[in-house]
Amino acid sequence: MAKDKKGKAAEKKARVAQKAEKKATQKEKKSKNKPKKDDDSDAEDVDLDAVLKEYAQQQERFLKVTEAPSEPPSPRGSATFLASPANDNELFLFGGEHYNGAIASFYNHLFVYNINRDEWRLVTSPNSPLPRSGHAWCRGGNTKDIYLFGGEFSSPKQGTFYHYNDFWRLDPGSREWTRVESKGKDKSPPARSGHRMTYFKNYIVLFGGFQDTSQTTKYLQDLWIYDCQTYAWHQPALPPASQKPDARSSFSLLPHENGAVLYGGYSRVKASVAAGKQTKGGSGGSRMVLKPVVYQDTWFLRITPPAADAPPNTLPKVHWERRKRPVNPPNPPRAGATMAYHKGRGIMFGGVHDVEESEEGIDSEFFNQLLAWNIERNRYFPLALRRPRTQGKKQVAAAERGRRGRGRADEEELLRNLAALEAKAPLDAADAPEVPEATKPAEDEEDQVEKIEKPRIFEFPHPRFNAQLAVQDDVLYIFGGTFEKGDREFTFDEMFALDLGKLDGVKEIFRREPEDWQGSEDEESEDEDEDDEDGSDDEEASDIASTAATSVSQLSTVTAEAQPEKEEENTGTEETASSPLKDNLPHPRPFESLRDFYARTSVQWQEIVIDKLSRTYGGDGKSVKEVKKIAFDRAEEKWWDCREEIMALEDEQTEAGIGEVVSLGDKAAGDGGGSGVGRRR
After folding, report:
1. Most-buried pick from 87, 192, 436, 494 (CB within 10 A)?
2. What is the pLDDT of residue 68?
3. What's the start-to-end Cα distance of the chain, in Å?
4. Nearest-angstrom CA–CA distance, 195 and 208
């Protein structure tokens, strides 16, 4: 036993010694690998300057923006199209999708169109949003940046699908993209597409849209506001029990001096329909289906910014106000009718009206009508193309003499009217009295670059829906759009331009034939055969759909006071809408351009401005140039506000064979007299 104990003790000592030796060996290895303090190890240390330089180079490559001439964009839908807020000679196009019946393609191209040079340029940058469609963007509040949010993307075979919730800022000058991270407690809006954005002061307004999942499509009615000064999203709290628009997508959201204005939209709501077969008891069963709804209601979002002495990060107050149904709205109601903002108006083009024959088939009517919605009057005006008028040499010479005579009188009258203002507010040397210009200062100067003339047609582009619209310098640009025939879907590969002041034809910027449809056409032929066999059923379904559309529009309007006839209601509204024409302000004449209108009425407008300044500020604080600028802005606002009525008068005079209407007062100013036999010749 003693020998066994001694043997075990010896083994234990051997194991302990072996472990100690092993630890010593490991420690020695570590000490060999570790550099000594006295050694010069700069070569082995990491060079921080080199690391930072390499990082800067990688970041530069990541942020590097390249811009090169390009062919016009390939056909695409659900893209975004915007006039540059920093350069009145550029248009921006971003993103979009194209489906040829077999494969869906999504893009993240940023195209810039130079108007004067008729040149497309493709901007590429590694730091750009991912490919998408159905997103929204707008210019920033009180800034010249462009902000983009959301959108959607799917795989080529549309097997996978998802929405974005990222937020981006685009510098229109440098073309640089920057992803914006929100600092607010509300973070950012949920992912979506089909929403709309607009701007107000230093805010960006976002509303609506939809979220598509594998089971259902959820339409949204949440309101979000982004503050461009605090870089934070917030979801404003609405007053209790206040009204707000129904959930929707594909609506129009336009800027307003006191907030934003919303019109129309589209959604699908649950509805109960008959099952088609009766039960033994005699009553038919019912089931729930999703029915399309096209809205025609109008909402005003009133935004009240915080007071100047409010604490930091104070949120603006907002609430929705439901407006009356517009006068002369598009009939029948249509979805996919896009709208662009222009000087207090919404310019609408295209759209589609669907008549749902059954759950399997839909009969669609497409439009190429151009409408102007006067936001303040809440009234729609149809816009028609007009061939340019030609004037004789005598008429042109007489008009020039009249303008020169009026110009001399205007100079003397203006200096007299400004005397009181100048006495109270001395002018700087740079603001010395000068001859009043009867035309718009810099904006009306012809561009130094020679503009390229494009072929002009006197008919609107082919009917379509979801066309991309943008207005730059009073010219409407129409890009792309979609048209359906049976089960085939065509994306237009073209762009047009239309002068909203003259309406003297549509210019074709570029046009290419749509690509061939890659999907199956068997279903289309079957549908056409069924259409031929069931003609009477189509008429009945159309009647039912018309009734449904009427009921939808009734639900979308305010519960108005009971009136005996609908025509009486429209008449009363039209009288209210026409009231601004009798405001004792200078009024445009038929066939009078903005330049001529201001040349004729410049003194009156400046008197109006001087009178208002005298009553409001005592005449202090405004120079001569500032007064003239305000006067021209007021005249321009009046000219566009009356544009549709004046064009209607021009059409009436043209149909009646009436030539140019000459004012006797103007003729007297230009020719030294307006009476006598000569004026009756």
Report:
1. 192
2. 94
3. 151
4. 5
**DSSP string for 443-463:** TTSPPSSPPPP--EESSPPPP
Nearest-angstrom CA–CA distance, 573 and 449: 47
Q: What does the alpha-carbon distance between residue 378 and residue 573 come to, in Å, rounded to a whole number? A: 9
Q: What is the CA radius of gyration of the chain?
A: 34
126 upstream amide cis, omega within 30 of 0: no
Q: Is the dihedral of CA 324, 327, 332, 336 positive or negative?
A: negative
Identify which of 384, 680, 626, 350 has the alpha carbon closest to the alpha carbon of residue 504.
384
> Distance between CA 322 and CA 576 in Å, rounded?
18
Q: Residue 268: how many CB atoms within 10 A of its CB? A: 15
Give me the average pLDDT of each 10-residue run along the chain (681 residues).
57 70 64 50 58 72 87 96 96 95 91 96 92 95 91 84 92 94 79 96 96 85 93 90 94 96 94 63 69 94 92 90 93 95 96 75 88 94 84 54 56 59 45 40 47 85 96 96 90 96 94 77 47 44 35 32 37 39 73 82 82 69 80 82 78 58 47 39 34
Our CA angle for 193, 195, 201, nearest 5°, is 135
Within 13 A of 321's CA, how many CA atoms are on the CB side? 11
The tokens for 290 are 């999703």
Within 10 angstroms of residue 221's Cβ, the number of other Cβ atoms is 13
List b or e across 507-532, with b for residues whose CB sees 16 or more CB atoms inside 10 angstroms. Answer: bebbeeebeebeeeeeeeeebeeeee
Give every CB contact of residue 259 below 8 A, 6+ residues apart in sequence: 200, 205, 300, 301, 302, 303, 318
Long-range contacts: 645-653, Cβ < 8 Å, 24+?
645/578, 645/581, 646/588, 646/589, 646/590, 646/592, 647/383, 647/384, 647/386, 647/503, 649/590, 650/386, 650/590, 650/591, 651/384, 651/386, 653/590
Q: What is the pLDDT of residue 675?
A: 42
Walk me through the domains of the chain, giving residue ranges and CATH numbers. 48-273+288-385+453-510 (2.120.10.80), 594-656 (no CATH)
H/E element holding 58?
A: helix 48-63
**Cα within 13 Å of Cα(192), Cβ side:** 26
Task: Determine phi and psi for 106, rounding to 5 degrees.
Answer: -115, 150
Task: Reduce the DSSP state of residue 298 to 3 states and report it.
Answer: strand
Residue 491, classified by CB atoms within 10 Å of its CB into exposed (0-12), middle (13-18) or buried (19+), is: buried
> Among 233, 476, 235, 298, which Cα is nearest to 371's?
476
pLDDT score, position 604: 82
Cα separation, 175 vs 181, in Å, equals 19
